[in-house]
Design a protein that fits this description.
Shape: elongated
Number of strands: 10
Largest sheet: 8 strands, antiparallel
Radius of gyration: 24 Å
Structural class: alpha+beta
Distance between the termini: 38 Å
Helix content: 40-55%
Length: 296
């Protein structure tokens, strides 16, 4: 893969790509060493170091995958400690020119913002999703729909909600490798309000690997509660596991939510909306950081 084509990807996608390429290289070196020495047991602790299973809460984002390649990080640290960051090539710490950390950071952020905007699929965040009106407040999103008998309110937060939809297959020999798309799949709360009474259902996305045979639900129930007035810590709630242990109750509640509009299709649309908004917020953060560092 040429360095120029690799740099076309936004940094948070390049980190994901770098991890899998470095993993492939390290794995080949380890296998060769094992064949020479005949010590296969050495492989196991290394595997435990570089292989990471998906967390159940889906909070680990592809932006953080770089830190998992600890061996490569150590090598890069050694290089940076010996070579001048200004590009003079000095190994003795003698700088031929000085570039401030602020200037380097602003230059990087300028390139990164351009790359992220180029990769941005949705330029304008919609104000409605399938009959639900969207309201934005920082990282929090509220979707509301009012019927004759009740108010349906869905709330979620895009912070720490990004995860790769699938682990990408990266071929280091390709000029333009396929990078796994970053998707936001936040936990979300559904409130069904009638007068002074509220049924509140906390839901989360179900990973494809955890979906049962014959069932393709995009989301599941984590917790359910019912209360009058405002919610407080004294309100009793029951977990989704307990509901699932009661015959048919879990599925009946899912069917009830589906009648209210919370279908698999709608929840997939919610993920797309959250992905677009999170990406927009991420670009906004980069722009704010650039202005702050530049003193604007």
């Amino acid at each position: 893969m040429s360095s120029e084509s690799f740099r076309q990807f936004p940094a948070r996608n390049r980190l994901c790509c770098t991890f899998f390429i470095n993993f492939h290289k390290m794995n080949s070196i380890l296998k060769a060493a094992i064949r020479l020495n005949g010590i296969r047991t050495v492989l196991h602790p290394v595997k435990n170091l570089v292989s990471v299973s998906r967390p159940q809460n889906q909070i680990l984002a592809a932006r953080n995958l770089w830190y998992m390649t600890s061996i490569q990080s150590q090598k890069l640290s050694a290089i940076h400690s010996n070579l001048c960051s200004c590009g003079c090539g000095s190994r003795k710490g003698v700088h031929t020119k000085e570039i401030s950390a602020e200037k380097e950071l602003v230059e990087f952020l300028t390139e990164e913002i351009l790359a992220e905007r180029k990769a941005q699929k949705v330029k304008t965040i919609p104000t409605e999703i399938q009959g639900f009106t969207a309201s934005l407040n920082g990282a929090e999103v509220t979707l509301t729909k009012k019927t004759d008998s009740e108010l349906i309110k869905i709330t979620f937060n895009v912070n720490n909600s990004v995860d790769t939809d699938a682990e990408p297959e990266v071929n280091e020999n390709l000029d333009k490798p396929e990078i796994g798309e970053l998707k936001s799949k936040p936990s979300f709360k559904v409130d069904l309000v009638r007068g002074d009474n509220t049924i509140s259902v906390l839901c989360s996305f179900v990973p494809p690997s955890e979906q049962e045979d014959g069932y393709n639900d995009s989301f599941g129930i984590d917790e359910l509660s019912i209360y009058s007035g405002e919610w407080n810590e004294n309100v009793y709630s029951v977990s989704g596991e307990v509901l699932d242990s009661v015959r048919y109750l879990y599925d009946l509640i899912l069917n009830y939510l589906e009648e209210k509009g919370l279908t698999n299709e709608f929840v997939d649309k919610l993920s797309e909306y959250s992905t677009a908004y999170e990406h927009s917020a991420y670009i906004g953060l980069l722009e704010g950081l650039s202005k702050f560092v530049a003193g604007k």
